[in-house]
Design brief:
Layout (H helix, E strand, L loop, with lengths): L5 E6 L6 E6 L3 H10 L5 H21 L11 H22 L5 H19 L4 H6 L5 H17 L1
Antiparallel strand pairs: 1-2
The protein binds zinc ion.
């Protein structure tokens, strides 16, 4: 009987609308949760997610990345993936060590070229397709660009 699902009425912290939640377990524990937990209704949760996505997109656009094109499902996902990939790229660039100034300058050029190529990708699907790209993959690609630049 303690594993039954019970229905409780809670109030959304943001808009104060009452809605019902279904909770497992003991009634006493659930009453405590109903009382103490911060509850948010579905509409407020979605609005929050939309605001977070817009914030992320704004931050990316201010660093030169375009607004992404795609379906309403693809775009927020692609923005999140793009933010993660940009973090990986920045992390990689920060951790590299160089033997001399010319190596350092060459690497900076290669990173710029790589980042500029990413800035041209406005298709959400393209970013979703890159979701398994690792720091190692990025490192390999930047090294290829460096090698090509060195030959010039
Ligand atoms: Zn609400």
């Amino acid at each position: 009987m303690t594993d039954d699902i019970s229905t409780y009425s809670v109030k959304c912290r943001t808009c104060r609308t009452r809605f019902t939640v279904h909770l497992f377990g003991s009634h006493e524990k659930n009453l405590f949760l109903v009382d103490k937990k911060d509850w948010y209704c579905e509409a407020c949760k979605q609005e929050y997610a939309r605001q977070q996505a817009a914030k992320l997109a704004g931050a990316q656009e201010s660093s030169g990345f375009p607004a992404l094109q795609g379906t309403p499902k693809q775009v927020p996902w692609a923005e999140k993936l793009r933010a993660e990939l940009i973090n990986k790229l920045d992390y990689l660039q920060k951790t590299l060590k160089f033997e001399d100034e010319s190596q350092k300058a060459l690497s900076a050029m290669a990173f710029d070229q790589f980042r500029d190529a990413w800035r041209e990708k406005a298709d959400a699907k393209w970013w979703i397709d890159q979701r398994r790209m690792t720091v190692r993959d990025i490192s390999r690609r930047v090294a290829e660009i460096s090698a090509a630049l060195e030959k010039r």
